[in-house]
Amino acid sequence: MWTVVILGLLGTTYGQWTTYVSQREVRDLLTVRGKIWAATSGGLFVWDPEDSTLVPYFDFGRVQGPEVLSLARDERGRFWLGTAQDGLICWSPKEGVLEVFPVFAEDRVQALCICGDSLFVGTAHNGVCLFSVRDGEVLECYRRLGRFSRGAQVRSLYMSEDTLFVGTDEGIAWAWVGAPNLYDPESWCSASRSEDGYIIGPVNSIAGEGKEIFLCSEWGAFGKVGDGWRKELMGVQAYDVAVRGDTLAVATKDGIYLRTKDGEWTVEEVEGWVPSSLSFAGEGLWVYLSSGYAMVKDHMLYLLNRRLRVPIVLGPPGDRFTDLAVDRRGVLWAATSVRDLSPGGLYRFDGESWSRYAWGDIYRDAVTCVEIDHEGFIWAGTWGRGAFRLKDDGTPDVEADSVVWITPENSPLSPTVSEDFCVVADLAVDDVGRIWVANYMAHGSPVPTNTPIVVLCGFPHGDAVAFTDEDGVPDGEGTALLPLEGRLWFGTFRMGLAFLDYGPSLEDKGDDRWVHIFTAKFPKLTSNDISEVDVTPDGRILVATEEGLNVFRPVYSEGELRFEGWRVYDVSDGLPSNLVHSVCPTPEGSIWVGTEGGLARIRGDSITVYTRSNSPLVDNTVYALEYDAGRGCLWIGTGHGLSRLQISLTSEVSAPRVVASPNPFFPEEGRLTFHNLPEGSSLRIFSLSGELVRSLSPEGSGEVTWDGDNDAGYLVGSGVYLYVVKDPQGKVQVGKVALVRRRR
């Protein structure tokens, strides 16, 4: 038996924030004293074979659930994490986060290699950088490795004695680290072919033992011979290589290839699973496996020689959350796909465990939207197989729940490009419990049907009502529905917004009145590409577009539609991005806006922005927002996990944390700025020994700068300093900043 030790259910609470990330996708494995450390899509986990425990780590201070691409451990026992968008993180299991180095935040840190007090950092765009572990700064970057292109993508690193091997997307390069000038391409050897003429291809991994060095690539496996390379295994796509003693192991899409000292290869297959990472530890070879399904995957660690399986179920099944709904029990339901991208099924989260409804079909599992009807049934739309209605029995067991599909075969829904392909882009429930369905791309279908809007009146849906372009539906793909009493707001892709007044009877179309609102006729509308439509408690309509948020109050009288107080919010007003994916009004008068660049809260004339740099928001791409009135919290669905923001009973939320940038701080290059300081607060800077260094006060702007001097005006030395912020209510925030003075 094995045990999972889950801290906070893979949700870490930071003030009023909670983060949920998936750790099922493993990017790198590292063996430390018999334990298996895994770099994952949402942080780290460690598997201890001795006591069969699996412990996740995902709270790295201001960085929550980072996508970790590479992992290394230095001589002091500190772990170094290379991430996809947060730079480099220095972390200790005992001490927590020691430092975050955002110098690599604009790049992808895909490989790490420790060399004494230095760390070689392999990046996607800037070659190999030499990073000083002691001083916390980049010393040099080598962008031209031998004959390879400048800035060739670095995929793997390995140190053998005093030679650094670099796997790139063009082949393998290597150099003596004691060379006087590694900037010079002539200091590097490089090879894109083996000695016998085989193309090496993009190098995924490098491993060695003693003087033997091996690599694996998109084309196979190779071993170093003298100044060249020989083929070891050809004709297979290889993901990782590991060696111990006389055994060479290669992870490929066909299985795990093993070569012993006699030179013979055998292949070990785990039916239905694909290996991608390897690590020798203790009694055998550990393998990370994912299921072979392209759209819905399961994941596990596997001890090859004992056939021991360790399922990985840490966090949600996937990381993308594109639509959210909360049912009457407080259970969260989540859609996972933008159109047919990254299908993963429908997720259920009851606060303790995650469940997934999936069928192994890319179009059934591409769940685009989710809604809860008045009877408590869950409705989900898909990109390709229509919609389904789910009756939840209240448990995480998906097999115990009944599912009914609604398709063109048993409803007025129209197929799109073929008779078995039906897209549902949005679902909404009106005041009397009817289900409104946006049947996307029903216009212009090669099949003889055309129902861009379908209304299911009860279930079974024998009394369904369909609207076609002949009824006045605008000629565009429907993306958003907002049914109100006797009226409908309909957002489209490319053709703007439409308003329908259907009067006292939905079935009687004789008195229907359609108004098309598009930029050519209504220039105040920022874009004809509509992503969401919602309404505030005081009756204002919110229209999210790719060019900002539109807010207006409609006035409809005697068949005429007018607009009052039309207001546009975009980056010039303080939004983090013009591309608005989602919008959510809350009862106290706030409007929450999810954008491509972060989350914003509009309240009155003020806009507060939350991003990864100033809050625990898990990702800046915010696809979906859902307010849970019963629990006073805002669910935030992103492209890399789920955040939950608890809103207090007074409808106030925590202000963004005070942050210092740049961090590390180089005084020779400019000032350090403290952002998001509460009005009337004080800021004091201390040394780690507790000595007061500097006292500062913001002057109404919420920001204050520091030159790196003390209160006496003298410059302070390199080191880590604490800053303590205290607001007028006595609330205290504490942070760290590294000050680094350049060596002369």
Give the topology, please.
Elements: E1 3-4, E2 11-14, E3 17-20, E4 26-32, E5 35-40, E6 43-48, E7 53-57, E8 59-60, E9 63-64, E10 68-73, E11 79-83, E12 88-92, E13 96-101, E14 109-115, E15 118-123, E16 128-132, E17 137-142, E18 154-160, E19 163-168, E20 171-176, E21 189-191, E22 203-209, E23 212-217, E24 220-225, E25 228-234, E26 238-244, E27 247-252, E28 255-259, E29 265-268, E30 273-281, E31 284-291, E32 299-303, E33 308-311, E34 323-326, E35 332-335, E36 346-349, E37 354-357, E38 367-372, E39 378-384, E40 387-391, E41 402-406, E42 422-429, E43 435-440, E44 453-456, E45 465-467, E46 477-484, E47 487-493, E48 497-501, E49 513-517, E50 530-535, E51 541-545, E52 548-557, E53 560-569, E54 580-585, E55 591-595, E56 598-603, E57 606-610, E58 622-628, E59 633-638, E60 641-646, E61 659-661, E62 672-675, E63 682-687, E64 692-696, E65 704-706, E66 719-726, E67 732-739
Parallel strand pairs: 1-7
Antiparallel strand pairs: 2-3, 3-60, 4-5, 5-6, 6-7, 8-9, 10-11, 11-12, 12-13, 14-15, 15-16, 16-17, 18-19, 19-20, 20-21, 22-23, 23-24, 24-25, 26-27, 27-28, 28-29, 30-31, 31-32, 32-33, 34-35, 35-36, 36-37, 38-39, 39-40, 39-42, 40-41, 42-43, 43-44, 44-45, 46-47, 47-48, 48-49, 50-51, 51-52, 52-53, ...
